[in-house]
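ok trying again, last paste got cut off:
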Amino acid sequence: MQVSTQPSKTIIITGATSGLGYHCAETIAKSGQDWYIVIASRNPSTVEAAVQNLITGTEYPHIEGMILDLASLVSVRQFTENFRQAERPPLCAIVCNAGIQIVSDTQYTADGFEMTFGVNHLGHFLLVNLLLPNMSDSSRIVFVSSDTHNPATQTGMPAPQYQAVELLAFPSDNGDGDGGDVGRVRYTTSKLCNVLCAYELSRRLQKQRSPMTVNAFNPGLMLDTKLARDYSQAELSALSAAISPTVLENAKSSQAMGAALARLILDPELENVTGKYFDGLQEVLSSQESYDERKARELWESSKKLVKI
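nice, full thing came through this time. structure:
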C-alpha cells in the first residue's frame, strides 16, 4: 500500500506489540484513513520489533513506538510528557488495550498497588486523564474490557468483587497459595472497572457537551494471546473445563477481534456513539453492576486520589 499523504491525526494503542492490540494497529494502518500510529508498551526491543513488523507487513510508514510502563505512574507521566513535546498530528484516539492477569502470586506496581488493578485500571486511568487536554474535540477513547466482568456469561471465571478502591489497590489478603482464585477475581474485577470507568468518563464528557466518545470493548475468548501466560498447565486445564462448550466453540482470533476493535475508531457511523459496550462487532448490554453510577463515581474520585491528579 503506497501512502502519499501525511497523516492528519494520531492514535495511541497500549500493549500493541502482539495479539489484539497489534492487529488493531495493523487494521488501522491498512485503513487508508491517514492515522499516525503510536504503539505504547514497556519493553523497548519488543516495541521496536512490533513497529518494524507492522511497517513491513502493511507498507505503512507512519508508525512509531514509545515506551510506556503502566505499572509505574512515573512512566505514565513521562510518556505523556514525551508525547506532548514531539511534533505529531493532533491526538484523536486512545485505545486502552494493555492488560495482565496474574494468578501465581500477588505482585505490586512501582507505586505499591496490586499489579492487576494497577495496570489494567489505574495506569490507563492516569494516561487518559493526562492526555484529555491534548485530545481533539472529535476524539474516540476505547477501554478494552472482557465478558469475564459479567457473571451472567459462562466464561469459567469467577464473578468480580468490587469493593472500596483502597482495598482493590492495597488488598489485605495477599492471595498467595489460593490456587489462582484470588488472582482471577482481581482480573474480572479490573475488567468491571474498565467498563465503569468508560461509562463514567462518557457521562462527564457529555455533561461538558464534549463531542468526544468513550466506549468499552469485549474481544471475547481468544486462544492465541499471551493473557494466560501466568497459568500453570493444571490451571489451564481446570479453566478450560469450567468454560461453557458454547463459549469455547465461539472462540475468536486476535486478528478478527483486532479488526473489530479498530472499527470503534474507524467507523464513521460510530462518530456519535458513546457510553456503550461492544461485544466484538455488536453493541450489547454489559453487566448489571457496570451501570451502577454510584460505584462509577466512587471509582473515579478514589482513583484520582491514588494517582494524585
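cool. The first strand starts at residue 9 and ends at 14. The longest helix spans residues 181-207.
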